[in-house]
């Protein structure tokens, strides 16, 4: 998808002995939104905005070692190794010849390095320029900032599309609020800006500004604008929509003390796993401290300050735990961390309570299973078919109030709460509304200037779309069996128009498909080389739906 942005210059920081000014350049192509205020809680804001930067640059995808240089070295020295090995049969003459060739090679390599040095230097300079001046070549999209009557919040996505970050600041964070206008915009967020954030000090006045002047510059000053066109992969946008859908699902909720998060991060820093399962296992028992077990080491953390108050005993396992290191900077300034778990192998949300600020970290099921692939949490969210006229009424009310619960909107519009919830769910899945887990309200937030083609972005491939149709028709029956090694055996039948298909999935302890089979033509022709078939996806989605329901009971 092609996104067009037009910034009034670059985001800048002005720093003196007594004052620091943070000015974000907004996207002038969107409806005007601005904010001007002086920070009161400077250090907490510095740590929170820095943690948001850690989300933006996060990329934990597997990167194989680059052996190119080693292979080149072996190829270059292969003749030398062979000559040295065979040197014994031709004594002094061979040794002299080898020394002569070595001297010649040394001279040739020196000349080569001398000739190519300007090229290598220019190439490195070019990539440094791209990183500093054109971050779009390295990071997919600048953060989205939304200004509401009660708070402003930043949102961003990681490079590997598995981590979501949101920083919300209510207006008590500011001791002086000069001016603001509600709305959503993309802000220019350069790498240099992060470095300047580190200079925020408690004894300096710090002004935060989403510059309103960007919307009032006359067209004669067109050269002052910075135009950016970014061709975003559909997976990035799809991931953002799936995060919003996942946040509306029922969760298992409990609080952790900052020292509990510190203990988890400490163990992750001290140990590096070499085998699976690489999970974080939460053992929750009503009236008892939360217990956390880090596998495969079996390290146990008893969170004595954090008592679980849920209704039933349960055990939940999550993966991709090294992404929790993003929360390290927040530990000194956080009062508590509220954890929201959807279930075993499903996404998790960690909300840091920073008094007048909150930081939400959303993690997909595991790092390589990012938000956009085989998640489809919109399929699991309750969605009632709602008339377009009612949807319009709900959206107009949201535009007027900016945020609210479904019950508040139902009372105001005199519409059934279920219909309002259905309309809000539809707008959430379309990127126009977001659910705020911290305050349990829906908020107006349009992800893009133009409405997104939701039906195009909803699925990663045709098989996911077919699985959605199967799930909607509820023609699925399955059984699950927990095996001794921690893996899960799923066996299901999917009723088609002319035939009933039989699917089997073996999901290992790391929630990955270890083996699978189906009697459909797609699997017979391709096996798993092109991914699971629609019947396997439908069986697994149905199983995940029961997981969420059981965890919420």
UniProtKB/TrEMBL annotation:
Cross-referenced InterPro entries: Znf_SWIM
Task: Give residue ranges for domain SWIM-type.
Answer: 503-544
Give this protein's Gene Ontology molecular function annotations.
Answer: zinc ion binding
Keyword list (alphabetical) reads: Metal-binding, Zinc, Zinc-finger
What name does this protein carry? SWIM zinc finger family protein
């Amino acid at each position: 998808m092609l996104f067009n942005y037009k910034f009034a210059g670059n985001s800048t920081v002005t720093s003196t002995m007594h004052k620091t000014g943070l000015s974000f350049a907004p996207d002038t192509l969107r409806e005007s939104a601005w904010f001007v205020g002086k920070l009161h809680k400077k250090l907490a804001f510095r740590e929170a905005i820095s943690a948001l930067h850690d989300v933006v640059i996060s990329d934990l995808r597997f990167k194989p070692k680059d052996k190119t240089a080693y292979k080149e070295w072996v190829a270059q020295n292969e003749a030398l190794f062979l000559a040295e090995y065979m040197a014994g049969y031709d004594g002094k003459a061979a040794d002299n010849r080898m020394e002569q060739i070595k001297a010649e090679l040394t001279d040739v390599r020196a000349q080569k390095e001398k000739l190519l040095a300007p090229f290598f230097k220019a190439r490195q300079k070019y990539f440094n320029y791209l990183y500093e001046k054109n971050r779009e070549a390295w990071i997919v999209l600048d953060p989205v900032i939304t200004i509401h009557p009660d708070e402003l919040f930043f949102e961003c996505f990681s490079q590997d599309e598995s981590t979501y970050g949101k920083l919300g600041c209510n207006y008590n964070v500011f001791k002086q609020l000069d001016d603001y206008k509600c709305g959503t915009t993309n802000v220019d967020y350069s790498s240099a800006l992060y470095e300047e954030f580190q200079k925020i000090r408690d004894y300096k006045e710090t002004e935060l500004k989403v510059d309103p002047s960007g919307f009032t510059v006359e067209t004669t000053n067109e050269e002052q604008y910075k135009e950016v066109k970014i061709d975003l992969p559909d997976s990035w946008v799809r991931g953002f929509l799936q995060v919003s859908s996942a946040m509306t699902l029922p969760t298992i909720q409990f609080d952790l003390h900052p020292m509990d998060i510190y203990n988890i991060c400490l163990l992750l820093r001290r140990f590096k796993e070499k085998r699976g399962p690489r999970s974080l296992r939460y053992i929750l028992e009503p009236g008892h401290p939360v217990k956390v077990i880090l596998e495969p080491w079996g390290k146990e953390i008893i969170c004595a300050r954090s008592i679980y108050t849920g209704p039933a005993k349960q055990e939940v396992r999550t993966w991709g735990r090294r992404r929790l290191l993003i929360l390290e900077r927040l530990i000194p300034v956080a009062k508590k961390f509220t954890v929201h778990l959807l279930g075993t192998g499903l996404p998790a949300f960690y909300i840091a309570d920073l008094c007048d600020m909150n930081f939400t970290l959303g993690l997909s099921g595991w790092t390589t299973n990012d938000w956009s692939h085989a998640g489809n949490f919109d399929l699991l969210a309750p969605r009632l078919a709602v008339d377009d006229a009612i949807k319009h009424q709900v959206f107009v009310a949201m535009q007027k109030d900016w945020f609210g619960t479904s019950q508040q909107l139902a009372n105001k519009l005199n519409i059934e709460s279920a219909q309002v919830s259905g309309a809000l769910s539809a707008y959430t899945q379309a990127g126009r509304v977001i659910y705020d887990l911290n305050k349990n309200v829906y908020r107006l937030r349009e992800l893009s200037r133009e409405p997104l083609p939701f039906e195009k972005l909803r699925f990663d491939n045709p098989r996911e779309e077919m699985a959605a149709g199967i799930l909607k028709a509820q023609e699925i029956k399955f059984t699950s069996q927990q095996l001794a090694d921690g893996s899960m055996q799923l066996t299901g039948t999917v009723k088609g128009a002319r035939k009933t298909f039989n699917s089997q999935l073996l999901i290992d302890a790391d929630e990955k498909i270890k083996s699978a089979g189906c009697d459909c033509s797609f699997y017979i022709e391709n096996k798993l080389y092109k991914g699971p078939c629609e019947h396997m996806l439908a069986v697994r989605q149905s199983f995940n739906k029961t997981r969420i329901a059981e965890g919420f009971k």
